[in-house]
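From the thread on structure requests for the teaching lab: each student submitted one protein with a one-line request. Submission from student K.M.:

"Model tetrahydrofolate synthase from Lacticaseibacillus jixianensis, tokens only."
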Amino acid sequence: MKTYDETVAAIHALPRLAKTGGHERILALLHALGDPQHDRYVHVTGTNGKGSTASGIAHILVASGLKVGLYTSPFIMRFNERIMIDHQPLPDADLVAASAAADAALARLRATNPDFAVTEFEYVTALALWYFHRQQVDIAVIEVGIGGDTDSTNVITPLVSVITSVGLDHAKLLGNTIASVARHKAGIIKPGRPVVTAALPHDAMVAVQRRVAATKSQWLVLGQDFGTAHATLDGWGQRFDYQGADGALTGVRIPLVGPYQVANAALAITASRIAAQAMNWPLQPKEIRQGMLANTWPARMEKLSDDPLIVIDGAHNPQGIAAMLSAVQQALPQQRVTLIVGVLGDKDIKAMIAELEQSGVRLWLVPVPDNPRAEKLADYPDADRLRTFASWQEALAAHLDEYPDEPVVLTGSLYLASAVRQTLLAGA
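Reply posted by the TA:
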């Protein structure tokens, strides 16, 4: 049997993309693993916000006494974070054992079809569903990787689906219009199963409406069927009131900043109530409050240090950059802020840099470390007149030397945020 490090290396050695975008490969692997995709799930997609929302749902359901799986991507500190039960990453030994089970299933498939292969995401998704089934979780919350309809996670039939936001990202896979992206994301809506969404752009709402009509699903929309009010900053967090069909909750607190996190919390509360009702499981207001209060999420306007004030955020597309800037304005009002930004080359860098420049922040550019997709410094828009550094470490050192009393935010990519977090919190 492989060691833990060998297991993770073997997973990462699998191909990232397949020649075809169907589900035939993962369904074959899942069938060889006993078809764990037929268990109870919540499915969450969105251009931004899906991780925080999925985590919020899991925290609420755990607080109610359920055993809850959570599958997300990418990881920030260690691979095991992607597959959690009751907020605990799967142990190293369990990852090795789960991978051995998946490898054995692959070997059986290749005995009849020597060319059978799966992508890394298909493999990890199948492994996660098998592990949740093996551990007999009561329900698992599954975050979509990219899009929705063709995503490897879209082999489940969830108790409720959630769409947190629709914006332009992954254009090569999802198209370059809001309507196209929304059609992909709406693909997670299943016949007769409810869907909870944010108040999406018009073209996205039209696409969701068509899918809802085709699937005869119940559709609950933030701002129409449920909502929030009186949101205020509360330390490095927020407090708000929630109103839904099942009653109101006043003074709900979340340890996350940014106006969008209040919307994510409302989606999480609503989806959790629907899932609990489908399971005939009692969900009390105090359990919702407890789950929301516990819902921290790494690299989303996460404060790593108070003095000096260092924040990381995984904003990696224009919509995410706009949300990050709104969070900065909320949490750090009337303060001059340095933004150290590193972006992958396959993102809409021009729109992201333009948004940042218009905000009036002090903008410094760095490469995303150790990533072949990283944009080269010389290729950044306006790199000739913006300040650039060979590494985020050099940029952070310059900020701390020149502006020691001012906050700094490192953002532009989850991979950059992950590198910063791993370095600054090493041994913490």
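TA comment: The chain is about 40% helix and 15% strand. The chain has two domains: 4-294, 302-424.
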